[in-house]
Amino acid sequence: MKTLYAQAQPGKVVLVEKEIPAPGPGQVLLKAKYSAMSPGTENGLLGEHIVPLPTSIGYAMAAEVIEVGPDVRELKVGDHVVTTGEHAQYLIMDELNCTICPEGVDLKQASFWNLGHTGMYALRRSNLQLGEPCAVLGQGFVGAITAQVAKLAGAVPVIVTDLDDGRLEAAKKMGVDIAINSKTDPD
Questions:
Q1: Burial of 49 by CB count in 10 Å (0-12 exposed, 13-18 middle, 19+ buried)?
Q2: pTM surpassing 0.85?
Q3: Contacts from 118-122 at CB under 8 Å and sequence distance 24+?
Q4: Beta bridge partners of residue 118, listed in sequence order
Q5: Which of 47, 76, 115, 137 is buried most deeply by CB count within 10 Å?
Q6: How does pLDDT run across 104-155, given as a tens digit for each residue?
């Protein structure tokens, strides 16, 4: 198996080969179809802002089940799933960390599921109520998704900030109420 691995030196990534054992009880062997990358997260990982280096990187994958271990109950060989696996060709994963991808869903798009999940989870944890204001700081992938979920949840107004005017224009086109460039308008 080949996997992307962030070295002990910030900003350095290497492709590492690892041995893959047979799946154990409750585990499946996955073959990656697509692995999503979010520039903010990768930069955070490579800059050692999230976890100490060295570390494997990755968190959102669409894959095919190619082998199942004993006691796997729901998944079978050939199923397409999404999971929080690292950027790798092959990956052993617990069945409980895999979600079957519905028939007809494009696997390239499905690989971004965790970015949407992160925005939805943040909003649920905030306990946002219908009609309350919501501010989303940053309009990268996750921030843009979070703003859209806030709007769908009934937040009024939905306020976003970013340093990039292009991202703010995109946010306006997607229907946010207020878009602020916090660099040029810090107040």
A1: exposed
A2: no
A3: 118/142, 118/145, 118/146, 119/143, 119/145, 119/146, 119/148, 119/149, 120/145, 120/146, 120/149, 122/146
A4: none
A5: 115
A6: 999 999 998 888 888 889 999 999 999 999 999 999 888 999 999 999 999 9
